[in-house]
Amino acid sequence: MPLRQILPGLLRDPARALVDCGERSRGEVVRLNLGAFRPFLVTHPEHLQRVLRERSDNYVRAGDGLQWRPLKRLFGEGILSDGRHWTDSRHILQPLFTARRIDSLVDTLAEVIDDAVAELDAPARSGSPVDMGVEQARIVCRAIMRVFFADKISVPDAMRIMEAQDVIAWSVMPRIAVPWAPLAVPMPGDRSFRRAVQTIDDLLLPIVRASRETADDDGDDVIATLWRGRTPDGRRLDEWQVRNDTVAMVATTTETTISVLTWLWPHLEAAPQVAAQLNEEIDRVVGDGPIRGAHLKELRYTRQVLDELLRLYPIGWLFPRRAVEEDVVGGVRIPAGSTIVVSPLITHRMSMFWDRPEVFDPDRFAPERVRGRHRYAHFPFGGGPHQCLGMHLFYLEALLIVATVLRRYRFRLRRPELPGIKVAAALRPRQRVEVTLEPALGGTA
């Protein structure tokens, strides 16, 4: 695909232009001409399965990759890198994210979320507008800092970290857009990036260092687990890998839920039939009492709504990989050292794999329709060995937040329109999502 066909759209509307590249590829492996940078675009579910699972050892997250190189200055070597560091960190952290352990935390999460959501009673009574992005960040930070970090990180500090992450997500875009530029060459956004990373380190490094001495007695929060854990060959992590993994875990346990749920409210406003079905299910399953873990398996339509949000707005929208050895994917030779671009944002919106892909339709994820779909047509959390550890956590936490908010309140958007997509390191709404709340019938506001 030549640069003249790609560049104008990327400058005008990057998200739309990327999806258009997928549409024009018709599922074939194609090479994108981005000037000095010419990655292969892989969009077909069968080809994705080869890259992400069957030959995952050949397609690695390269330190100099399209998206990882600028972000590596924040996350360093650890759970978000590759090779030995990733193996060591995942070995230590994985027990914290098993389905059994996450399920054991659900009622605690539910109680913390209920308390956090209750703080919306005041604006609901007064009719004052609230920014749902900010409020969701507050709710998620309250829950995650309690359950996974044992309140070692305060909610105000966690909110400052969220703000710094948002700055980082936007400030790295010039380097993602010009991936061949050396890090030594100044670029727009570099100064903001450095300030944001310094803010995160100023907040987290003292906590990480203070936890070292008490790790053996601190229970199983993330930081204590990192200090106490042993790698497969019996080593302990050094301070910088514990720092890197702490930063990564704060980001990954909060970012997806905050960002994805921000899109929920505009879509419910635009699709009243979906909102009605969602509210009916929550009212029927939860009733007037507080939501608890036992309710979640009955919130089937709510889960479909979340899956549809993840289809349209996958937080990990770009997974660049580097081919270690030559391979053939979809009949196309991939030379060793080539960059492979894998994008859920593109595959999830291609008409070849989805009927009316731009329409918000949770019924796509009814069980009978899911069974007939390729596993890698919908992969918002990646796939293979690098599939996100926090996938199960996201679903439980998001179900709890959606059910708790809608059990208590009904809402109206101040601007009843779908915000555009701002392409950054993670997808963001172009406009703030502000709503006015009122107590739901039978709610407790």
Task: State the gist of this model.
The chain is an alpha+beta fold and 445 residues long. The chain has helices at residues 3-12, 14-25, 45-54, 68-75, 83-93, 99-104, 106-118, 121-126, 132-147, 155-171, 173-177, 190-212, 222-228, 239-252, 255-262, 264-270, 272-286, 293-296, 300-312, 344-347, 367-371, 391-408; strands at residues 30-31, 40-42, 59-60, 130-131, 319-323, 327-329, 332-334, 339-342, 409-413, 421-422, 428-429, 434-439. Strands 1-2-8-5-3 form a five-stranded mixed sheet. Strands 4-12-9 form a three-stranded antiparallel sheet. A two-stranded antiparallel sheet has the order 6-7.
Can you put this structure into words, describing what you see?
- This protein has about 450 residues and is of the alpha+beta class.
- The chain is about 50% helix and about 10% strand.
- The strands form four sheets. The chain has a five-stranded mixed β-sheet with strand order 1-2-8-5-3. Strands 4-12-9 form a three-stranded antiparallel β-sheet. A two-stranded antiparallel ribbon has the order 6-7.
- A hairpin with a 2-residue loop joins strand 6 and strand 7 (about 330-335).
- The longest helix has 23 residues, at about 190-210.
- It is globular and about 60 Å long.
Topology, element by element:
Blueprint: H1 3-12, H2 14-25, E1 30-31, E2 40-42, H3 45-54, E3 59-60, H4 68-75, H5 83-93, H6 99-104, H7 106-118, H8 121-126, E4 130-131, H9 132-147, H10 155-171, H11 173-177, H12 190-212, H13 222-228, H14 239-252, H15 255-262, H16 264-270, H17 272-286, H18 293-296, H19 300-312, E5 319-323, E6 327-329, E7 332-334, E8 339-342, H20 344-347, H21 367-371, H22 391-408, E9 409-413, E10 421-422, E11 428-429, E12 434-439
Parallel strand pairs: 2-8
Antiparallel strand pairs: 1-2, 3-5, 4-12, 5-8, 6-7, 9-12, 10-11
